[in-house]
Hints:
The complex is a heterodimer.
Chain A: E1 6-7, H1 16-28, E2 37-41, H2 45-50, E3 54-55, H3 58-67, H4 71-80, H5 89-103, E4 118-123, H6 126-139, E5 143-147, H7 157-180, H8 186-211, H9 219-223, H10 237-255, E6 260-261, E7 267-272, H11 280-287, E8 292-297, H12 315-324, H13 335-349, E9 353-359, H14 369-380, E10 384-389, H15 399-417
Parallel strand pairs in A: 2-3, 2-4, 4-5, 7-8, 7-9, 9-10
Antiparallel strand pairs in A: 1-6
Helix pairs in contact in A: 3-5, 4-5, 5-6, 7-12, 8-10, 13-14
Chain B: H1 2-13, H2 15-26, E1 30-34, H3 41-45, E2 49-52, H4 73-83, E3 92-96, H5 101-113, E4 118-122, H6 131-152, H7 158-184, H8 191-203, H9 206-222, E5 232-238, H10 246-254, E6 257-258, E7 263-264, H11 265-271, H12 281-289, H13 306-316, E8 321-327, H14 331-346, E9 351-356, H15 364-376
Parallel strand pairs in B: 1-2, 1-3, 3-4, 5-6, 5-7, 5-8, 8-9
Amino acid sequence: MDVKYKVNRLQTTNEIRPLVDKHWADLRTAKERGEKVAWASGPTFIFAYAMGMKCHFMAGYSAYCGGIGAGEEVLKVAEMTGDLPETCSYHRLHMGMGEAVARGIDINPQAILPMPDLMVAGRLCPEMSHYAEGLNRRFDIRVLPIDLPSVYDLKDQPRLREFVYRQFKEVVIPTVEEVCGKPFDYDRMSEILTVLKKVATLRNQCWEFFKTKPACWTLWDYGVSIAPVFYLMGNPAGIAYYERLLEELQERKEKGIPAIAPDGEKYRLYWDGWLPWAFLGKFMRKFTPNGAICLCGRYPWEFFPHPELIDPEHPVETWADLYYGEGRLTYHFSPHGTVDLISELIEDYSIDGLVMFSSKTCRIMNLSQPGVIDVLDKKYGIPGVIVEGDMIDPAMISDAQIETRLEALYEMIDSRRR
Amino acid sequence: MEKVLTEIAEITADPYGYVAGLKERKEKKVIGCFPMHIPDEIIHAADLIPVVIWRGNEPVTWGHAHVPPYDCGITRSFVDDAVRGKLGFMDGMVFHVRQCLQAGEFPFIMERHVKPSYQKVLYLPALYPGDVMRDFTITELEGFKTSLEEFTGKKISDDNLNKSIEIYNKNRGLLERVYEIRREKPEILKAREVMQIVWSSMFMLKEDHNKLLTELIKGMEAKTVEPEKDKIRVIPVGCLCQTLQFDILDLIEDLGMIIPDDDLYIGSRYFANQVNLDGSPLGALADRYLTRTPVCPTKGVWQVHWGDEAIKKMRDNDARGIISIIVKYCPPHACYYPDFKSKMEKEGINAIMIEMEHEIITLEAIKTRLQSFVEIIGGV
Ligand code: SF4
Ligand code: SF4
């Protein structure tokens, strides 16, 4: 008889929306309070936060826009004002929002941000440079650019660490000091990191409940809980949030409540690529009826999976080390690092199959995905499929394609189980 | 002149065969560079054959399983060549992984499918402020040089490097001379011939190419051409990393336009800027890389507007319009294009954009757009 699967919703995750709403609302009203505003891409907002600036974060804003259902209308403005649909949807969202403000085009007011005093443009991906350049050309925004290469080979890591650290010290800090008219606040940066360390430690305890069989929550629940371990960093509300989440998960475990009813998952999946912010519900509806849940992924594991490495006493050094030292955060975004990371995740979370989300407008991972599937299939005998789509742009999402690929994955898992 | 042009046309008709033959004749190893901005003088100085990786002219076949359709033409073609085993003649490969996201993932695919005995990843930086950028570029180039020394077992001296730089500078100077003559008498060469001339420089040994160019220039200087005054001068811009389909160039000319100069990668951008020979050769190579013009959208430059550069080129050549050619799914160019377009509109420049795909099914749509463009700028 067919099992009727249904998601058991967590209570705590309802508390995230007010937190992120407040963050963006504070940012929207910062100028009224005479505060300085920054925009950031890559892990650079911490420098603005340390100086007391209110700061946006590129992917966080994009996720927020997608989450509040404003993505499509902002993308339309971008298209109307000349942006090409093949460019990254995060890029287009920012261009669209900027153009909407500049031209007085009516969009969801929650999607509007004040133009920044400084744009701290970390170039983890070249598109992050393109959007900063575009914003500078169009709206004369001051840009503080930083080059942040992903480590392809671990032996390259030390020299890249030095390169990035020097930029932090020689370019970033002097520039934020100049913009804010005061010395860099190393103590505040340390405080932010102290809070982050606590939040990430609690979050790791929550991750343990992905390991249980059945799992107590899903990657989507964690996906909506990322802000406290990233762009809400330094905010003690993040500690309270994860404490409550942890309590709820412990309670679930004790009471035997799985992430999906009636008895938990049939397929435990790994999710590669960005989370499809505007389509989380859509994907959930494709997974749940089949008893499938995603439990871990490359992007959601980007947020300090090793909090023990955070050293608040040496804030700038530790920041460089997290990304280019033992933390290996950028290495995990290049193909070999991905294979290493997914291997660990497959083992830790007892994964049955891989869903490789290939964004049609973000090409940071998609070229290597077929190879990564192949390597891991050979190593673990675990199948994987590529699902094409986009994080925000509905024009890039095809239901039929998603369903066909996921069905193929379930069949492969079944046949290997037989 | 005709003899040289025929030879170049033959060489560019089959770069795979040419490079494989060259390798055999010279008994040297071949190193493929992907594709823009790698200072391949260093490879040359290591007594190896550097070749800039190209977009093949065949439709993608086996590559479909390895590369999404929403990647650019050279990416798709290169991956297809790799998985079909067409790149076996390359002993080594070097990638500038920071050029764009697609370039960043090549080494992984090549390691798996081509398994070159030498592979190097360069993280050439964006042209951002701070001494750290130049220092890091030099560190990258030093590492590159060392890796080649380890590969060949031979030291690369400053002398070797300077000799190679001289040969490369000579090539740049000769190509510049070809362009100078073309600017004076644009009727002298077909646009496809010009592209073949530059493209062949990317995979021939520069000393061989220099000989061809010297002969070609002699012929070009001696040749008189009837000016075709009714032709409308236009400047093509863009087409990063790859050859433009020759048919598109022919189409532009067939529609009554003529190209006195260009701002294409396989064009004037390739040979722009000499390497300074005073001082440290690696420092000089770094400085050439770090030069802001011609503006390349992969380099993170915004202090100079690409549109201004293109307009200057147009005016310097008495041209009447600009044709942007965007490789479909090339994010660096696609992200820049709206600002380029606004600049054209603001300055009242006649400009058009055409998108180029690797597999062109029909030229009709491009033809229609170009036709209406030529009508607007005062043609037929
Ligand atoms: S291309 Fe991808 S990695 Fe780059 S900014 Fe866009 S979404 Fe982010
Ligand atoms: S054409 Fe554009 S996208 Fe393709 S490899 Fe070159 S820079 Fe990258």
